[in-house]
């Protein structure tokens, strides 16, 4: 059995996940599995990581992001009987709110990809880790899940599901050596948020968000906002009286 830290990244080609992978390789040897839907992109990322850490073991695997059976099979093939140290679940898309309002099929797909699918992956990995009483499941949620807003409530509803699920999973894991970490990034400078950037939105550097994730996973934190200022911002938004909130175009 490998003595290197065993890390699995679901949605590995996302910008935040890619930077997390790079930071995990700094100064240490790891056994890392990259999971995604595009084999060519996965292979390019794997090659980049192999150059950065030639003594690490980097492998790729196509994953299912839609069906419970497919998600379970993906996790089974990755983990088998080998002990996992970290599973980072980082896949998703920034839903087009207006299109989702007018296309229920798209709405369902976005809710599945951003909410149900990450939860199913987390549940599958948590069960594997509990069998060994070891490991950390880290899930990237979003500040959008803290309060439903007209601009992104389909995406926010999916991330709200992730938040409630992770709270329950953390409660379930009390007394074990398995940790569940929920990360809530604010708007981050990635290809997924290009539309926001073009509209002049101030976005957090992806390297800083990745550093916060890597640090929170190492600490086993229950919840982290990235950057931390979003903890205060979202606390204010959550507690705004309805008559004030309804006047805001957010």
TrEMBL record:
Question: Which Gene Ontology molecular-function terms are recorded?
Answer: oxidoreductase activity
Q: Where is the signal peptide?
A: none
Offer a single GO CC term for the protein: membrane
Which keywords fit this entry according to its UniProt record? Oxidoreductase
Which Pfam family, any one of them, does this sequence belong to? adh_short
**Where are the coiled-coil regions?**
none
Under PANTHER family, the record lists: DEHYDROGENASE/REDUCTASE SDR FAMILY MEMBER 7B (PTHR44196), SHORT CHAIN DEHYDROGENASE FAMILY PROTEIN (PTHR44196:SF3)
Similarity-based family: Belongs to the short-chain dehydrogenases/reductases (SDR) family.
Specify the protein name: Short-chain dehydrogenase
- In its UniProt entry, the species of origin is given as Jezberella montanilacus
